[in-house]
C-alpha cells in the first residue's frame, strides 16, 4: 500500500520469513527514486515476541508510523501462529 505524507511517498509491505526467522513482518519503505527501508515490525511465532527495528537515521513522520502500526494491528499480526496445530 502506497501513501503520501506532505511531499514524501511511503509504502507498506507484508512478508513471511520461515528460513532464518519463523514469523511474519511488516515494513515501512520510503519511495524517493530508490526505495529505502525505514522500519520493520517482525512477529516471531517460535519465540512468541514482536520486534521493532529502524534502519535509517532519518526523520519519519508520525503519520507514517501510525499507518504501519494500524496495518500491523488490523491484520491480526499480534496473534502468534501455533505450529503444533499443523503436525
Number of alpha- plus pi-helical segments: 1
* Low-pLDDT segments: none
Domain count: the total is: 1
Write down the overall mean pLDDT: 90
The SSE string, one letter per element, is: EEEEEH
Rg, Cα atoms, Å: 14 Å
Annotation, overall tally of beta strands: 5
Secondary-structure content class: mainly beta
Oligomeric state of the chains present here: single chain
Report the span from N to C terminus.
34 Å
Largest sheet: 5 strands, antiparallel
Q: Tell me the β content.
A: over 45%
Q: Please bin the fraction of helical residues.
A: 10-25%
Taken from the alpha-carbon principal axes, the silhouette is elongated
Main sheet: which strands, in order across? Answer: 1-2-3-4-5
Structure report:
By secondary structure, the chain is mostly beta strands. The chain has one domain. The chain is 15% helix and 47% strand. The protein contains 1 helix and 5 strands; from the N terminus they run E-E-E-E-E-H. It has one helix at 62-74, and strands at residues 2-5, 8-17, 23-32, 34-44, 49-54. A 5-stranded antiparallel beta sheet has the order 1-2-3-4-5, covered by helices on one side. Strand 1 (2-5) and strand 2 form a beta hairpin. It is elongated.
